[in-house]
Amino acid sequence: MAFFSESIGISDSTFQIIRDLIHFKTGIYFENDKKDLLADKLSNRVLENGFTNFTDYYFKLKYEDSDTEWKELINCITVNETYFWREFDQINVIVNHLIPDLFENQKRSKIRIWSAACSTGEEPLTLAMAINEAGYFDKYSIQILASDASTNVINRAKSGLYKDRSFRNIPEDIKNKYFTKIDFQWKIDTEIHNKVDWFIKNLKNQNEFSFLYSSDIILCRNVFIYFSDEAIKEIVNTFYDKMPQLAYLFVGISESLLKLKTRFELIEKNNTFLYIKNEQ
Ligand SMILES: C[S@@+](CC[C@H](N)C(=O)[O-])C[C@H]1O[C@@H](n2cnc3c(N)ncnc32)[C@H](O)[C@@H]1O
Q: Which residue among 89, 137, 220, 280 is least packed, with the fewest CB closer than 10 Å?
């Protein structure tokens, strides 16, 4: 594959139609001041397709509706920053409060937890390790599902291999227990890795893997910061419509759904905020 590092200029009008098309397809919204950023991120795609300008690239995206090109585009525009034990207070609430309550008080026979923008997998694997530490895999039936729109990150998640930057927050004893060093990377324990099922799913395509929405707990963390309010509302409404009568949603700690006036109720548990659907 050829690799170009040149950035091609983009006119205001072409920026707007590409930005709107990307928004429609992914929910990700590039504000006007992000024009150069978008041009930098997509210049290689324009050149690799044999074009010299963004207008031709726009026509390909719009009228050929090429799945392959959309996958490449999503790989280029998404921000995949993540690490193990990120915003761990939320994971603690899931493990120490929500899971025991769902099984013991609500009498669920099995539960599903979905990490809906999982990037390279550190989030669902953190959950799997924490659940294992609590001894719940032997006691309860818990399914962990993980998805992302980017094919690159899901392929990396499936490999189970991680570099040092993923470990900036994980306790040393957990790292030593669940990872083995292989050259310059760390491989996660196979049993823990096998606790997670991986999917490539764009949150704007609500029909893709629609069973995921029946999850009892959804983590959709640190992704809505890139979306328009309109897209967040559409996605959160779908979560609400399809989740069970009692269910929980987590967004990143710097994100809030309050101004969007969704049907989820914001509650606080152990100094952590989460959203609850409670129609029991
Ligand atoms: C910053 S990472 C967050 C990872 C993890 N949830 C965390 O909090 O550490 C955001 C992820 O959202 C994914 N993403 C962006 N738009 C998406 C969409 N429309 N559908 C599914 N995933 C999307 C990106 O590919 C990226 O991996």
A: 280
